[in-house]
Amino acid sequence: MASALSERRLLSSRTECAHMARYDASKVEPKWRAVWEDRASFAAGDDPDKPKYYVLEMFPYPSGRIHMGHVRNYAMGDVVARVKRAQGFDVLHPMGWDAFGMPAENAAMERKTHPGTWTYANIDAMRGQLKLMGLSLDWSREFATCDPEYYAQQQSMFIDFLDAGLLTRRNATVNWDPVDMTVLANEQVIDGKGWRSGAVVEKRDLTQWFFRITDVADELLSAIDTLEGWPEKVRTMQRNWIGKSEGLQMRFDIAENDLLPDGEQLEVYTTRPDTLYGMGFAAISPDHPLAKALDSKVPGLDAFRAECKAMGTSEEALEKAEKKGFDTGLQVRHPFTDELFPVYVANFILMDYGTGAVFGCAAHDQRDLDFARKYGLKVLPVVAPEGDAAFTVEAEAYTGPGMMINSDFLNGMEIEAAKQTVADRIAERGMGEKKTNYRLRDWGISRQRYWGCPIPVVHCESCGIVPEKKENLPVRLPDDVSFDKPGNPLERHETWKNVPCPACGKDATRETDTMDTFVDSSWYFARFCSPRAGTPTERDKVDRWLPVDQYIGGIEHAILHLLYSRFFARAMAKTGHLSEASIEPFKALFTQGMVTHETYQSEDGKWLSPDEVERTGNGATANGKPVTVGPIIKMSKSKRNTVDPEAIIAGYGADCARWFMLSDSPPERDVEWTEAGVEGAARHIQRVWRLTEEALDRLPAHGAPAPDIDGAALDLRKVTHKTIKAATEDIAAFRFNKAVARLYELTNAVAGFKGTGAAADWALREALETLAKLMAPMTPHLAEECWATLGCDGILADTAWPEAEDALTVDDLVTLPIQINGKRRAEIQVAADASKDDVEAIALAEPEVVKFLDGATPKKIIVVPGRIVNVVV
RNA sequence: GCGGGCGUAGUCCAACGGUAGAGACAGAGGACUUAAAAUCCUUCCAGUGUGGGUUCGAUCCCCACCGCCCGCACCA
Predict the structure, then answer these.
(1) pTM score
(2) Over chain A, what is the mean pLDDT?
(3) What separation in angstroms does the CA of A214 have from each of A159, A220, A226?
(4) Is A255 within 8 Å of A331 (Cβ atoms)?
(5) Is residue A172 within 8 Å of A208, Cβ to Cβ?
(6) Is A398 helix (H, G, I), strand (E, B) or coil?
(7) If you write DSSP's letter for every residue of A100-129 in order, what string do you get?
(8) In this structure, is the CB of residue A129 within 7 Å of any atom belonging to strand B?
(9) Any strand B atom closer than 7 Å to A296 CB
């Protein structure tokens, strides 16, 4: 067998045809993919004898083509899946499509097609591309969220959630594009105009559905502590997003006036009740009901409110904007001193946080201080830093710790005690109570869109809101719709919209809003456990597979998607679709970095794509004209700095793309795609192949018993087993770049192996088989080809992960550096297990050390076994 | 403004508080070749952003500053 192969190899190298002189990925890769597919190698088994492992990468939006970000994401997930599988786990590694959303509708408008047609065509294209990557996916579980079978179950759960009180309906202000007749997300509003239509965006109050996520805000917050497998960064982001603050909600009496009936109160929220004696004014949001009520009664207020509105509500503009207020003429009475304070409408008060009203304490809040200085309002410090009785405030508010002053019964207290005391006193008087507030808002899911999951309710004049009967689900999207007119086609689809009431049978109308696409992606991980079930989940399946053991995706989903999924898992547990054990759906999370590339601009400022550009030393040209090389940024269509994965796979092979994606940069960091880097990866793949083939002649049979091993053969075995140990640990810890480096080391050791004889041949086979096994998670096609070439049993995808022999991972002799006063002066060779005393003795006998000591007695000798000896003189 | 991350050779990156260098890319020289490609061998280069501190010893821990990146952001 071996000789026949080698004969062919010799022949081929001479004739450069027939057998591979070079490794040809375009031939090898499809072959192994077909083998895996035929054998259903990657189907999850529901095998009760094996421990389960669920690895999931965030499923893609079917935009039409995969991009390098996908390649990186799925390459990483596949490494995890393949290693776990080889380690004996029953692995669930599924793939699907996050398929609803606006791009499909936009495409429908532009191309006069149906969003579904466009979406499914894209899915077909992208599935084909993904399959080229050779991922160990269980394709039998594939679904798209726009499949009626999927959204039927989502609608069913919507009804369960409705019954369980997890949903509510209320008015909310939205960005409304009057031309497109649709709601816009904040990101779609650019300079106050709709991104597509360019029309000035209006604020509109619409009745919308909300998931009551704020009801579990505290639970979502406290459970973050249990997410030990999540990056600290993401946990912090979620905590900040939920934004818990504890304070006092209290009511001020409004002094008698001509504008309002007597006895009106102003309710405010504060986290600093201790500063109540430092109050200088009260302020309300321009959108506060009181401001609205006074709008026409107080001259000039309408103009001020209009001015605030015109300023917009977008982040940074607000930050820089000047604090402005308008005195309403109203006054509120201090609950303890009866002092009266003016009530301002102020542009920096947010209506949707707290009560939309505050009391201002200028001395201890910078915004309040700026405001008070501008309008000549009272500034009275009530907290003094320790030992500063004559404390005053100038331009900077004091927010640090200290002792209460100027505060009657609070004087001398610490801040915390004062907070407590004020809260108690206010509560005693029935003027307020402690309240916890959250930055987190309820999750509004109504979208005035066609291409989404229909909200399965009917509006009946007699019965009100009536959920669709479950046996009638799904409420299907009608196919006969057109996008030639603006607005939601469901609104004008008379036969779809007008239906009898499910309760009373009278004429009624369907809800025409569809659900936010974040709903679709909030439970797909559970659906993968039984993707064809007639219920949203099957309890035995989700109980076995969930939680997801390893979730991998981009940091851009650190907040919304993950928070919504955490909420959904709780809601599903509450309605019986999941067990309580799965309310945290993702046990471990990994957020990978982006794929970046240089940018190129021609002389006239046009962006150029990498394949139009030729790099020349430090510069670059396109068609002979000079090109400006710009910053290295995330691949994006607008900057044209993308590289097409399919072209790379066609040119270099999937293994090469995968290997490169895992090399060099730590996976959580950005990686720069470079042509040189890819070529390096390709060279390595060729090298592994060549080393394998060239060794065939001398190798003993697969599984041959080991002869006595020593010398060079033993050294190689040590490298092999050290590599097994290190690479396995590196992969488990998501240090793929280091695992790759280990494999280069093993490859270099094989390439430089000089051993001869039976022991050497045996060790060489072990090294090559191990190299194939260890590379398999990253370059699976190459690894299978090497495995087969080496004449091994079965296929590598079914072969167990190698185990390191501990005895071979440690050296007998170690080289220890000797430091004298922290500087390296000599080194010694000692037995790895030498005692501290022995090492010390050897070190002190070392000529260099003797010379340095020059007869003196060392003050101290530090021996770190296996590491270093430091002699302090 | 608040919170977090990063800063090591020309580049990407490694180094339980212990010899600054594992690996890759790029560069240089050489071998093989009619030549090129491919391959192989050899090899130059830095002392860890800056300044302090802790320590026998700091790339690593602490403090301050500089630079870059990310998240949140008038949240009462």
Answers:
(1) 0.91
(2) 88
(3) 19, 9, 19
(4) yes
(5) yes
(6) coil
(7) -SHHHHHHHHHHT--HHHHHHHHHHHHHHH
(8) no
(9) no
The backbone region for A722, taken as left when phi is positive above 0, alpha when psi lies in -120 to 50, beta otherwise, is alpha
Residues 432-451 of A with CB under 7 A from strand B: 437, 439
Which region holds residue A16: left if phi is over 0, alpha if psi is between -120 and 50, else beta?
A: left
**What residue type is assigned to position A800 of the chain?**
A
Through-space separation of residue A784 CA and nucleotide B4 C1' in angstroms:
43
Strands (E) located in A541-686: 550-554, 589-592, 595-601, 607-608, 614-616, 619-622, 625-626, 628-634, 671-672
Query: What separation, in Å, do the N-terminal and C-terminal C-alpha atoms of chain A show?
Result: 67
Residues 196-235 of A with CB under 7 A from strand B: 232-233
Pull the structure tokens for residue A328. 């309403």
Q: How far is CA A138 from the centre of its chain?
A: 23
Closest by CA to A459, choosing from A488, A498, A491, is A498
Q: Consecutive sets of 10 residues in chain A, 873 residues long: mean pLDDT of each? A: 34 36 89 96 89 96 93 96 97 97 88 93 96 96 97 97 94 79 70 72 84 92 91 89 90 90 91 92 92 89 83 50 86 94 91 89 88 90 79 80 89 90 94 90 88 96 94 94 86 94 94 93 97 96 96 88 94 97 94 88 84 72 80 84 90 94 91 88 93 92 93 92 95 94 94 91 95 96 95 94 92 84 82 84 85 80 86 83
A691 nearest nucleotide via C1' and CA: B39
- Strand B, nucleotides < 7 Å from a protein CB: these are 3-5, 11-16, 18-20, 22-26, 38-41, 56-58, 70-76
> Could you give the 3-state DSSP secondary structure of residue A693?
helix
Could you tell me if A762 and A716 are in contact, meaning their C-beta atoms sit under 8 angstroms apart?
no
Q: What is the ipTM of this complex?
A: 0.93
Q: What is the rounded CA–CA span in Å between residue A827 and residue A818? A: 5
How many whole angstroms separate alpha carbon A224 and alpha carbon A54? Answer: 21
Strand, helix or coil for residue A814: strand
Q: If 0-12 CB within 10 Å is exposed, 13-18 middle and 19+ buried, where does residue A108 land?
A: buried
Question: Count of residues for chain A?
Answer: 873
